[in-house]
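Q: Got a minute? One more chain.
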Amino acid sequence: MTRGEIDTLLALLESSEAEPILRAVAGLRLALADLQEASLRSVLEAICGLFYIDLYDRPDLQQAVDEAEETIASAGERAVPILIHLMEGSDAKSHLHLARVLGRIGLAALPRLREMIATSEEPYGRAFALYAVGKIESDEVHVALPETVGALMHPDKEVRDSAARTLGKIVERVPAGRLTERRRAEIYESLMRTTADLQAAVRAKAIRSLGKMARHAYLAPEQMRRLRERLRAMLTRDETSDWDRAYIVRREAQEALRHLEVNSPPGGGL
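A: Always. Here it is, folded:
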């Protein structure tokens, strides 16, 4: 595809109508494999411009944005540094789409995402890097556990929220037997501490992920017993309990208790 043809497609991306935008994205997808680094960057950055669209105002452009995500992901590992760079200066809407694309790219994006979680000075960047890790559908995602567990201690609530959620996603992807007992205990203890977080949303995510640990056979009987006691205290409204005032937390606690009941060991080890 000639430079002139690419420029024509890039101009179509600026249309206010869905059909020409879809045509442009489809055409640019065909060109990606042959683009050199500088041209690839300019094309991907232009396509990423669609991620700033407010889909509440323009629901007719939903398909175009979805196709943009798939197109950028098709560039694979070459797209990763470009997407990471864009995440350092975008808004929340764009962050969400960029994180989804990085998740679709998968393990090739993981080293840069781990670095971002550990070192980014921008809390939103860390939070959405964690979100992207949670979107990677591979049991090899467990290598990101050190950074994810560490993010539970971050001063920003959005980072802690994303970390608590992502730990549950990793538990869903990685069979318990792939991890050492020590690593499983580290995840458990970190999440248990997070059930006392000052932010209700963070507490709720931690409880949800603990429920996933119970469902996916991550917990020893004693851990299940302690978790059950903690959840019951959150749901018991009296002077001696740790009843949680937040409805979203109590709802997650009820769901986690159901997982504990279904997955408790024979003989009632709870």
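A: Residues 157-173 form the longest helix (17 residues).
Q: Perfect, thanks.
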